[in-house]
Specification:
heterodimer; A: about 0% strand; globular; B: about 325 residues; 3 helices; about 10% helix; about 45% strand
């Protein structure tokens, strides 16, 4: 981290590779679309690296990066919704998702956005409810409530399937 | 719910990873201030487009009524398109596939991935290519419309009346030109084989010029549903004058307006500023006034003096000389 902050590209590249896949999957989980995930994850890294010099290296990098990913994904989705109304499909097309468990992906993508973000950050990124609350700027109770409802909804989906 | 949800998620594509890595590394804080020579190439790449905007938006800038913020830092060679609608009440710019837009009425869009975008006259609407759809919204939040385009929309041009749009969409291995009403109704195919060059509307909104599949400019007359190809090949940009019927055509060798031709290398774009034609080349913006069969030079603005570099979240206008 220290070398990357000094502009060492090899160190920065190693930092990138260590966190890229998780960041991209978080973006995919929130946006539900590969193209947006590509864009959001790349943008998050770009923003993170552009501000490395101001990053407190005593703190872990991953939560900071994932916070940027989540907020960037939400910004993009909100802007897209403003631009397109409700007419664009929110669910990903199975072909768009490529490999992986499509049923699980489709189920996660079917969640309302606030619950989806909570699920991705909790069960994908591995954040605690407290960390998610800080990331989303909502009370911890709200996060727990969203997670509980999301799990209930997912259970219904899988039970029905 | 699995303990590790992501184990069952797909993998990102390696190509995407490499591109993202390159972008991220380019964004690293520099250990030492970059040399001017390294900045000059990307600066020049965006200079022409920014210069065009500044030429066209002079009055607006002087009024100070519009604050422009564009994008994130970009050190890579950048394709920059600035679209300034009639009335100059807003600015839309697509930088590396992202839309940044601001209007006087308060609409702001920051970093939305789009294929292209255009503000309507007086910035009443913005139309954009989003996925395989053409979408539009009003700045006051009125409901947007969205229409499947059948492919990625690559170019959009609003008629000066604001009642119609022409757009170019990727179709099969090529591109097609459509016309649609400003409310999203009555989509019509005008030409199934065109080049991906932004169409230009005549001032009376009754004709639209585009570049046909063979590279020749074509004027499509909407009143008579007829088309007329001009005797120019390899057109790279088109611009109808804001008054009258003069059509400026850029080719790799220069610019023509009717019979008047000026040979210029590296023409990057065209825009009219009143009666003057602004032509961006690699290092300058040249102004011409059509007079009969001549294009009379009206001066040159050295583009590097007004190069726009995206830095942080703002456009930086600086002198790179």
């Amino acid at each position: 981290m220290r070398a990357a902050r000094r502009g060492d590209k090899d160190a920065a590249a190693e930092l990138f590779r260590r966190h890229w896949a998780t960041a991209w999957r978080a973006a995919l989980g929130i946006t539900g679309r590969r193209a947006l995930a590509d864009d959001v994850a790349a943008d998050a890294f770009e923003r993170a690296f552009a501000h490395l010099d101001g990053f407190d290296e005593r703190r872990p990098f991953a939560p900071w990066l994932h916070r940027i990913v989540a907020n960037r994904a939400l910004d993009v989705l909100r802007a897209e919704r403003r631009l397109s109304g409700d007419e664009l499909p929110e669910l990903p097309a199975p072909a768009d998702l490529g490999s992986g468990d499509r049923g699980l992906l489709a189920a996660v993508s079917s969640l309302p956005l606030d619950r989806r973000v909570a699920v991705v950050l909790r069960y994908g990124v591995g954040m605690t409810p407290q960390e998610i609350a800080r990331t989303l700027d909502v009370p911890v109770g709200t996060v727990n409530s969203r997670l509980a409802r999301a799990l209930e909804q997912l259970r219904e989906v899988f039970d029905a399937g | 719910m699995p303990a590790d949800l992501f184990e069952r998620f797909p993998e990102p594509e390696p190509r995407v990873e490499e591109q993202a890595l390159a972008r991220a590394l380019a964004a690293l804080p520099a250990g030492a201030p970059p040399r001017l020579g390294r900045l000059r190439a990307p600066a020049l790449a965006v200079a022409a487009a920014v210069a065009l905007l500044l030429v066209a938006a002079g009055a607006l800038a002087a009024a100070g009524a519009l604050h422009v913020t564009v994008g994130r830092r970009s050190t890579a060679s950048t394709t920059l398109r600035l679209a300034l609608p009639g009335g100059a009440r807003g600015i839309a710019v697509v930088v590396e596939g992202r839309l940044w837009l601001t209007t006087r009425s308060g609409l702001r869009i920051e970093g939305l991935p789009v294929s292209t975008a255009a503000l309507s006259p007086h910035a009443l609407y913005v139309a954009a290519g989003l996925g395989d759809s053409l979408v539009a919204m009003a700045p006051d939040g009125r409901r947007a419309w969205s229409r499947p385009a059948g492919g990625a929309v690559t170019e959009i041009a609003w008629a000066p009346s604001g009642l119609r749009l022409a757009y170019v969409v990727r179709a099969g291995g090529g591109f097609a030109l459509h016309e649609i009403e400003g409310n999203g109704a009555r989509d019509e195919l005008l030409d199934a084989s065109v080049r991906s060059v932004r169409p230009s509307w005549r001032a009376d909104s009754l004709a639209v010029a585009y570049v046909g599949g063979g590279g020749a400019p074509v004027v499509y007359d909407l009143a008579h549903r007829s088309r007329r190809a001009l005797g120019v090949s390899g057109a790279t940009a088109l611009a109808f004058a804001p008054r009258g019927r003069a059509l400026a055509v850029a080719t790799p060798d220069g610019v023509s307006v009717g019979q008047a031709v000026v040979r210029l290398p590296r023409v990057a774009g065209l825009a009219w500023s009143g009666d003057e034609l602004a032509v961006t080349t690699g290092d300058a913006v040249r102004l011409f006034r059509p007079r009969g069969a001549r294009l009379v030079p009206r001066g040159t603005t050295a583009a590097p003096r007004i190069a726009g570099l995206t830095a942080g979240s703002r456009v930086t206008v600086r002198d790179v000389r």
